[in-house]
């Protein structure tokens, strides 16, 4: 029998409805492979209309700079995508017609109209709108980047605050070719993705990963890792930086806050972007689900990128409508909204 060298994906379903399925992937190895696979698994199967749109734009080599979603008085929704063309052909009729045809095809009957226009000076204020975030809110979202002692927990309930811990043990003796990281941390949605994302951005290769089932809200994870050159990590400073980054990101992968902007109330969610430029999967979907469960309507939503000295962030802004059950001027109601959104994003 010849050697199996082709790329293969197989799925073995659980014998019972509550048993997990096993996905086996045979493909060429690379640094960051686990992160990329986690992303695909997280994104697969979610029927999000706007995410279908982003796939089409990506296939057309059109880069999304910003997104804004608005409701109109007649109950319709207007999605604005600010895009740039990697092929620099969007000024031609042929390129515009191809883009319009592909978008209307994927949206089907839900699409009333699809128009492409050059951005004029009337959109200048919108493009600079990120500057309207106050310094206090910016510190809330993008601060606490460098210290494990500054974990963002102002809006955490006492129950969640007690859960938040991540212990990492380093073992360089067990394996002659690998450094072993033993992680004990709170279980949460996208946990494996966050670990793989940090490893990928740090040029760390994970050759083997073993994790246990969630027990009392915690997981134990063993990572056998190497440097990009295939050697184990022996430099203490490098290990300290990696472990510190893992703890910080596992405890605080997302930032959620509510702020006032004039008479309006907005919910802001920020998450770090991979060095490859990819954002965290399903954030928009999870936030809108949480707000829907609370009965809070979204007047408008937008997404943009924000850069700090340490990294690039993806920022989601949701302008909220007033709700009698959650008066947005009330501090307790605001904390309940933040807590619900964070729990949904983290799977708690």
From TrEMBL:
Task: Tell me which Pfam families the record gives.
Answer: ACR10_N, ACT_ACR9_3rd, ACT_ACR9_C
| InterPro entries per UniProt | ACR1-12 (IPR040217), ACR2/9/10_N (IPR056816), ACT_ACR9/10_C (IPR056805)
Where does the ACT domain lie?
Answer: 11-54, 265-347
Entry keyword Repeat: yes
Q: Does the keyword Repeat apply?
A: yes
Could you state a single Gene Ontology molecular function term?
amino acid binding
Write the record's keywords in alphabetical order, separated by commas: Repeat
Its function, per the record, reads: Binds amino acids.
What's this protein's name?
ACT domain-containing protein ACR
Source species of the chain:
Stephania japonica
């Amino acid at each position: 029998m010849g050697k199996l060298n082709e790329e293969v994906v197989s799925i073995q379903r659980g014998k019972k409805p509550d048993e997990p399925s096993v996905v086996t992937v045979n493909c060429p190895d690379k640094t960051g492979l686990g992160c990329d696979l986690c992303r695909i698994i997280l994104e697969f199967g979610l029927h999000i209309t706007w995410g279908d749109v982003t796939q089409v734009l990506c296939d057309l080599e059109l880069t999304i700079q910003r997104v804004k979603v608005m409701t109109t008085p007649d109950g319709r929704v207007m999605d604005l995508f600010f895009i740039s063309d990697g092929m620099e052909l969007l000024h031609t009729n042929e390129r515009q017609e191809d883009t319009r045809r592909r978008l209307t095809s994927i949206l089907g009957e839900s699409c009333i109209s699809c128009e492409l226009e050059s951005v004029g000076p009337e959109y200048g204020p919108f493009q600079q709108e990120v500057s309207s975030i106050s310094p206090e809110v910016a510190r809330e979202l993008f601060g606490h980047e460098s210290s494990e002692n500054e974990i963002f927990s102002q809006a955490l309930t006492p129950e969640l605050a007690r859960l938040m811990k991540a212990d990492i043990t380093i073992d360089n003796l067990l394996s002659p070719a690998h450094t072993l990281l033993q992680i004990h941390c709170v279980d949460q949605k996208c946990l494996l993705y966050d670990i793989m994302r940090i490893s990928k951005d740090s040029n760390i290769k994970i050759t083997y990963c073993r994790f246990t089932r969630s027990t009392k809200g915690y997981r134990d994870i063993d990572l056998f890792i190497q440097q990009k050159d295939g050697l184990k990590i022996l430099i203490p400073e490098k290990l300290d930086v990696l472990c510190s980054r893992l703890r910080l990101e596992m405890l605080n992968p997302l930032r959620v806050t509510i702020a006032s902007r004039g008479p309006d109330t907005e919910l802001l969610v920020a998450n770090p972007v991979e060095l490859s430029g990819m954002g965290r999967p399903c954030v928009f979907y999870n936030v809108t689900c949480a707000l829907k469960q609370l009965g809070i309507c979204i007047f408008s939503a937008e997404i943009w990128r924000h850069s700090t000295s340490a990294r690039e962030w993806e920022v989601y802004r949701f302008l909220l409508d007033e709700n009698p059950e959650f008066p947005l001027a009330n501090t307790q109601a605001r904390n309940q909204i933040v807590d619900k959104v964070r729990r949904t994003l983290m799977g708690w």
